[in-house]
Each structure stands twice: as C-alpha cells, then as structure tokens.
Amino acid sequence: MKFMFISGFLFFCCFTSQEQLNIKASEALLVRIIPEQADQIILKPINAEKNKDVFEIETVNDKIVLRGNDGVAVASGLYYYLNEYCHAQITWNGINLRLPATLPLPKKKIRKVTPYDYRYYMNYCTFNYSMSWWNWARWEKEIDWMALHGINMPLAITGEEYTWYLVYKEMGFSDADLKDFFCGPAYFSWFWMGNLDGWGGPLPLAWMKSHFELEKKIINRERALGMRPVLPAFTGHVPASFKKKFPNAKLKKTNWNNGFGDTYILDAGDSLFAELGKRFLEKQTDMLATDHLYSADTFNENEPPSDEPSYLSSLSAKVYGGMREADSAAIWVMQGWLFFSDKKFWKEPQTEALLKAVPDDKMIVLDLATEIEPVWKRTSAFYGKPWIWNMLNNFGGNTNLFGRIETVASQPAKALNDPASGNMKGIGLTMEAIEQNPVMYELMTDNTWRNESIDLDEWLPKYIFNRYGVSDKHALKAWNVLRKTVYTVPADRYKRDGAESIIQARPTFDSLTHWANTKLNYDAKDLLPALDEMIKAIPACKNSDGFQFDLIDVTRQVLANYASPLQQQFVQAYKNKDADAFAKYSKRFIALIGDMDQLLATRTDFLLGPWIASARKWGNNEKEKALYEFNAKDLITLWGDKNCPLNEYSCRQWSGLLNDFYKPRWQQFFTKASLALREGKKMDIDAFTTEIKNWEWHWVNKRKDYKIATTGDPIVMAKVMYKKYRSVIQNAGN
C-alpha cells in the first residue's frame, strides 16, 4: 500500500471518496483548533465497529496517531486527547488551549466506541434565539464544536425560505402574494412551525439568497465531516394567498394564541398537499442534495382539529407519504415537543395513532426535553420508533445558571440499558438557545462515548481542571456549591427552566410575572458560598478565560437574585405609604441594575452590542439594516407587538440592555409610584402599563448602536461587586 504526506499529515492513497472528504475536513479542523501543534498528529482511517462510530489514539514512532471511521469520530478523538492529556477545553464561554510546544504522548492505546447511532443537535428555536445573525465565520466555529463534541445529526434549516420562494414562484405566486407570508429573520423558527406569518417582515429577497448560500456552506462542511444534516420537509403551512390561487384547496385556519394573526394549513387529504411536499423536497434536493433525514412538526403548540385516532393516523401517514413521494428513502425526524407541551390532548390513543401510521424504520422521534420529563416512559418508548434522549435545558436564551446535572450525568445511560426503553438510538441537545451553562453541554456530550452513567465526583474536578488549567481547592468548593444549588432541581419541585431576575420583568408590585419567572430552585443565600470560593480562587485561576466567565456569571447570578428581596422591600414600603423608605429601596434597585450592567460589560458573552451590530451588518441598505435591528431588539424584549403576551420570554441579562431598557423602564415606574405616594393616591397600574408598552415599542424601533467591545477588567469588577454587595445580600430580609 502506498502512502503520501501532505502538510504534515499521513494519508492512505486508497481512501474512498467519502473517506478522503472526511480526512481532508478533519485535517482542516485540526489546523483551525491547534495550528502550532497540528503536525504532531497523524490521521488515519478506521472501520466502524458493527456500524458504530469509533476512534483510537496511540503513540507510534513518537507520533500521536489518531484514527476514526469518519470526520466526527476523528474530531471526537482529538477532543478526548485534548481533555485527557493536555487538560484543555473548548466551550462557547471560555477556551483553554494553553498547550505545550511538544504534545504529550499517550502511553497506551485508547479505543472508544459509541453506543449511540445518532447524536442530534439543535432545536428550531436555536436558529433564532442564538443564531439569527450568524455569518459563516461563526457557523464554522460551531460546526467545529459540534464535531469535537461528537454531533453527527444536526438540524439544518438555514435559508429554507429561499427554497420555498422558488417553489411558490414556479407555481405562479407573485412577490405581492408572498409579501405577508415570509417573516423577519428573527422569527423563522415559529414561521416554519406554522405559528405565525409575516411578523418582522417583509423579508428582503437579498436575505433569502445570502442565507441559502450560507446554508450550502453549512451542510457541505457538515457532510464533509461525516455528519448527516436533517433538512426540512412540508407540514402543510401555506400563504394566506393560497386560497386565491387555489380556490378549491382545503385550508384550515389556525391561531397560535400569542397575539399573532391566523395562519393557514393545507389539509393533508388535499391532493395539493402531496404535490407541494414533493415539489419542495425535489427542489431542495436538486440544490442541496439529501441525507434522507427530514424534519417535520405538525401542530406545534396548536391542537389538531380532531382527536380521533383515525384522523391523526391518516394525517401522519400523509405527511410521511409526501416525503416518500420525493424520496423513497426518506426518514421523518419528529420533534416530540407536542407530547410534552400538550399532554391533555396527546393521550395514549392519539399518540399511538400518530406514530404507528409511519413504518418504524422511517421515523425517528426526538424526546425533546427528556431531562425534564422522559416522555418515552409514558408512550411505551414511542411504540417501537427509534428515538433520541435529549437535553433541552434552556428556553428563550434567558441568562441564568441552571441545569439538572445529576440527571444528565446518569439518565441517558440508564435509559440505554433499560429494557423498557425500546429502540433508543441516540442522545442529543435540543436547547432553545446556546452560549450559556457550558458545564451542562460538556457533561451531556461526554455521554457520547460511554454506555455507563457518569460519576460526577470524578467528572466535575476534571472539568474544572481542564477549564481553569489549574487545580484549586477553592474553585472545587465553589463548584460543589453550584452543583447543589443552581444545578440541582429537587425531585419534589417541578421546574422547567432557570429563573429570571425581577429586573427583567415589566415593572410590577407583584413578585411573579407571566414569563419573567423569578422562582429559584434553591435558597438564594445558599449560592453565596460559591461566590466566596470563586473570589478566593482568583489568585490561582485569574488567567483562565473560563474562570473569568464563571466568576462574572456567578457574580451576576447572585446580584440578579438580590433584586427580588430589594423589590419586596420597596413593595412593602409602598404598601406602608412610606415615601422615604420607598425612595431608598427603589434607588438601590436602580443602582443594582447599573452595577450589573457595569459587571457584564467586562465580557463579550454578556454584551447587547454584538447582537445588534451583527444584525445590522446583514443589511444592504439602511432600510434593511433598520428592519434587522428591529427584529434583533424585538425578539429579546416584546417578542411581538407592544401587546404580545410573550413579552420577556427571551429576556437577557446583557450590558446595554440593562442600562438602556430595563433601568429606564423601572425608573419610569418608580417616578409614577413616588408621585402617587406623595399625592396620597393609588398608582394607576393599568395606565402605567399602557404608557410603558408605548415606550417599549418606541425602543425596539429606535436606531442606536451599543458597545461591541468590553469595558473594564472582569477580575477587578467582580471584586468591586463582591465588596459592595456580599454582606448586604447576606443580611437582606433579616
């Protein structure tokens, strides 16, 4: 067998074309990740083990030899090596790649085989709550992260709107017919799920074209690494103008009930349903090729018109039939969110009817929030369908420390080894947003190459060491507190996701609001020792990027929690008609918001500016830039119009947003309340709410730039906030 060296890497000349593609992509990834040491690693192919992905690492002739059956396996082997031998780590919120010039050589051969066929990634919502404004450079980093963490089945819906645009144009629809159909760039997730039309639009054709080109780069890179992207399919959602074009079409009007207009669903029994589904998949396949995996979600947070099992079975069969018409090898990948979010409707007969109408080998079900509620346990493991155990963890991109760390460490393997789990075929990440709580995602993906539960007593110290680059007793103590507080949800307490701060709520005298849920899964003061230990860890860990993020994040959480007792104090003062006390506590509340803004300004992770700037950058003219800026600001505040009931669902604790949105909103509230106290009147809350909604609407439509670079030193600022607030918080409410 003949060999050849290219750029310091060893290749087999007899690779298949796919192997060559995988190795070439792996070579490029290796150079991107560790450019200075890349030539010390030799890449070689290896056969899968009984169709399971595998990697090997060993020392041969003083070189590190890394083998994998595809690009993802190779990348996973690389990350395993970096974790275990170099004590390195790559997360969204902190990178430790301080490697020695000469890489350490493994003393024994390492071989890992995954028990999971599928390692799924992304939720429809991720594409907007986190990825709305990503360019290719940011996508390239994410695909590298995916490969390093073993992902081989990513959802890929970027640019879908352009394919539909072409399909509808070929069917005779004009741009005017489609003007009110396509939504703005921040709302595609809910548009494709049939929840809304047109909001945040009209969508420029330039956006459609640019993001279709972006999608081609995304899926080409994913495939080059051996991933199988999950592409979209038709579920029935059509433009309102469809009725005009096809007056005999069977359309059903539906409404999401969140302040948006009606949308229209083409009846699966209409002959146009199969035709339209086939047209779309053929057009998509012609332009993007296919891996035969298709995402389609019927009735996402919308109830079907009938709960008759026969109706649901027929519906499901027709949705799948539409896929099969265009691709005989089609496999339907279904987000199982409906079984979680609407348990009253989806009882056993309805669920069984929907699922059993499709052949078992032609559907994969995502148990979308298994760490919250394992739906597989009440559906006979989805009645024989292959299914995937997923961690959801984050809703809306909210900024909070939260997770079920014990569950994620133990339950995937327990489910895998449970005879009742049926055809469990994979694990996945289905968060609504990323770039927070990195420990939860490192932990979840570490299940990939194991078939036994993770021992957190062993895993967590290694995680901290890899993250901070040093072993420090104070850092470990801090994390043991975090493990027992923010990352634990008591078994007797239902908690879907992390709490927000009352700061982010539309100003109120109440302690809880609709979306800004401030109820913690732990006692706020129990978190203080974690901050104490993080401060003590500064001398040893201060040079670590990951530590700096964690220090700011823990400090942020402590301050965010403190807003609740402060609010209770000014509320009590208002009830007591004590104007002086009300002024004192409201002043402290405003100062807290400003201090949090200053703290968060030290980390790019917590800046509003890049979110706005990256949105505007996609615009080709001022009109487009203004539209994208509106989308970016609206999603994370009002979500829809000024009366939208989803306001604050996607709230963020970001520097710029705190000072420019939350703080002035509360200042107006305090001004009105103070005036009412001085005049001896009851504050007119309804009038204030109407007023503040108008102010909010003005804010989301206003043109303004925010800082895109950090300000201040995170270590210094954390110390300042600790000194100012630690004892105050400890004594709050005493």
What does this protein structure show overall?
This protein is an alpha/beta fold and 734 residues long. The protein folds into three domains: 111 residues, Chitobiase/beta-hexosaminidase domain 2-like (Chitobiase, domain 2, 2-Layer Sandwich), CATH 3.30.379; 317 residues, Glycosidases (TIM Barrel, Alpha-Beta Barrel); 249 residues, Four Helix Bundle (Hemerythrin (Met), subunit A). It contains 27 helices and 19 strands. β17, α14 and β18 form a beta-alpha-beta unit. The N and C termini lie far apart (78 Å).
> How large is the radius of gyration?
26 Å
Give the overall pLDDT as a whole number.
Answer: 94
Number of domains: 3
Overall geometric form = globular
> What can be said about the biggest beta sheet?
8 strands, parallel
> From the coordinates shown, what is the CATH architecture of the largest domain?
Alpha-Beta Barrel
CATH superfamily of the largest domain: Glycosidases
Helical stretch tally: 27
The CATH class assignment of the largest domain is Alpha Beta
Q: Point out poorly predicted stretches.
A: 1-15
Name the strands of the widest sheet in spatial order: 10-9-19-18-17-16-15-11
Report the portion of residues in β strands. Answer: 5-15%
Q: Can you give the helix content as a percent range?
A: 40-55%
Distance between the termini: 78 Å
Could you give the count of β-strands? 19
The CATH topology of the largest domain corresponds to TIM Barrel
